[in-house]
Amino acid sequence: MNQEQGKNPHVSHRASMNEVAERAGVSHQTVSRVINHSPNVSQATRERVEEVIRDLNYRPSNSARALVTRHTKTIGFIAGGVNYYGPISTMGAIESVARDHGFYLSVAILDEREYTRESFEEVADSFLDQGVEAFIFLAPTLPMVEAAVSANISQPRVVLTSTQLEGSAASHPGIKLIGIDQVTAARSVIDHLANLGHRRCVFFSGPQEWGDAAMRLRAWRRFSAEKRWDAQTVCMKSWDASESYEKARELFAGIPRDQLPTAIVTSNDLQAFGVCKALDELGIKVPEDISVVGFDDMPGSDYYTPALTTVRPDFDELGRTAMQELLGYMGGSEYSEYSKEQDKPPFTSHLIVRESSARPRAI
Q: Mind listing the pLDDT tens digit for each residue in 115-166?
């Protein structure tokens, strides 16, 4: 049995650059130039090398390429809040754009509830050891934003956070903060309810260490005061349906129908689901007795009973833009199209009107 016959046919062999060079009759430097699209190779040589690459099914090693080009094509992604719909949707869009442009994400998940500055710096340092070329921070809470902006790193970075904090990065070159316009979103909800005739409303806030929740509450108080509503705020410690369910049962049990609020607005759809369950158990009908409006337009909100009126932020577009902004910061002609768009305004949201909001019974 010869050596070729003795090989295991099920064990694949990954060709090396040296094998490509030997088969094509050129140096490995020439193969490298072909792979990296260098102009300093004749057309005949380029075609011969490319043919051998196809024949051998050669794939260049990313680590080997990094040694030559000093580019790892790796982006460090540090994220908090990924237990919730908005952050996880944004994360998926970022990964998709990175992959489309030949970049890799090195991902670290931090629990925003147990976050410490030391843990953040430790993760950032580990990414620097990997030679990441840039960072994206998904920073839903104010302490995480502060750490992302002040971290001692020279690489470009994009920070996804609330729009209320955008000015804090002005003195930091190479940092871009982007977020969703929570003020316009809150105004759309209040205008919708006002047009229906509501004047007595309750707002369930989100946890105030989250930038988006803080901004929604601030906007709610401002616009409901402008409308001169009988407005109440219920301060929540979490985004969870279980807490809003318990709080709604506590607030509305035993209250006469004519003293109930005519509308409830929650800071996310999970809270709205908890509120609706509590109202149903108390015999309070939605929307006949109380209208309910949420935020986020989670999958399934349109199949809830009744279908939930809610605000739809474009989390996918937010993630795509974050990655495009980063590519623009990183420079290079192939990314110049993105660098021209770095002053675009924050993202708006759209109110999706469904069955859970209606005119008050007395109207």
A: 777 777 788 888 887 788 889 998 888 888 888 888 878 888 899 887 655 4
CB 190 within 8 A of CB 228: no
Domain around 280: 182-313
Domain count, the chain: 3
**How is residue 32 written in tokens?**
């490298």
Are 43 and 136 members of one domain? no
Shared-domain flag, residues 195 and 141: no
**Rounded CA separation 158/322 (Å):** 6
Q: Is residue 4 part of a domain?
A: no
Query: Is residue 176 located within the same domain as residue 319?
Result: yes
Alpha carbons within 13 A on the beta-carbon side of 45: 18
Q: The tokens 């030997």 sit on which residue?
A: 22
CA distance 179 to 81: 15
Q: What is the pTM of this model?
A: 0.75
Provide the edge-to-edge strand list for the sheet that holds 74-80.
104-110, 74-80, 134-138, 157-160, 175-178
Measured distance CA(224)–CA(23) in Å, rounded = 75
Which ranges constitute the DSSP H helices of 57-181? 62-69, 85-100, 117-129, 142-150
What single letter denotes the amino acid at residue 230?
D
SS3 content of the chain, % helix, strand, coil (to 5): 45, 15, 35
Q: Are residues 176 and 229 in the same domain?
A: no
